[in-house]
Amino acid sequence: MASAAPTALSTKETTNYARLCRLLVDIGTQALRDTFDAIHAPGNLHSVLAAKKPTLQSLRKQKVINHIQWGKLYPAILTSVSSRDFDTTLLMVLLRNLCGLTAPPTGWDAFPAITDLSKEADIARVKYFRNTVYGHAEKASVDDVKFNDYWRDIRDTLVRLGGVTYEAAIDNLRNECMDPEVEGHFLELLSQWKKDENSIKDQLDVITKNLEVLTSKDEVSSHALFLMVNKFFVPDQAPFGNRVHRENHGSSILGKLTGNVDLHSGQFTFKGRVISYNSRGRFHSFGEPWVYDASACDIESGISCKERGYHVRYDAVQNAVEKLKGMLKSEGLLYES
Question: What residues does the DZIP3-like HEPN domain cover (predicted)?
Fold first, then answer.
């Protein structure tokens, strides 16, 4: 005779764990979303994302943003984008990289100082509490003492982030009846959130390790370093050493005067003056991995200028040239036609 299938019984401790999962997944995510919306107004979000697309493309190249999340950021109808469609992991990525926030002194991944009640610290706390609660996943249970401590700390954090209106919702959740099916749903959601962020961390660990190995070798060349960084960070770029040409059909001075422009180095004549320019790419940071610097110089006078930190090489060169034009005009060496 076959034995009966085992059943999972819901106890006070398992319900405690499920309730914490729901607090973090449901209300915690909404608090992060409200924080993001307060920085980037929903009505203007599509414009912000358009302006920040190079930064987000780099994050996508790093696999910090996956293809599903990318589709949420840039839907077919761009003006329809909404933070309501962003999952918790994506909201965390955007808050760290798109909102002008500075990591707490302890970093984004550690528990902040108790005295640090800044917005940035509370964002870091949400992730820390997620990891702490997930640490009980194997048994999926939390005793009353730990539950009360966790609930108090998470509640305080979410109320600071979302405002006093969160108090009632959190208090109602604490007393709301949860059946086993609902418990299982939020356990799975918290687990998926943790897996998503672990995947991101794994990708960044690989990148960091490769950089350390590569730069530790005495014989490493700038060519090899560029190729390695380019593999992870820079989509749709030509290989290092190739001559990159672009044709500009707009009002660009370079496009008008030279048509196809060598964006590494070169020179051209403008109103009788010979102007030289050069540019280079460099690794900047994991948040903004690859940027371009450019300089432009008027050969006869020796007047020169530099521009730094552009996502696109062409923009760096063009802005350096435009800046030089302004300097020449102020010196009376270049006149408007």
Answer: 42-185
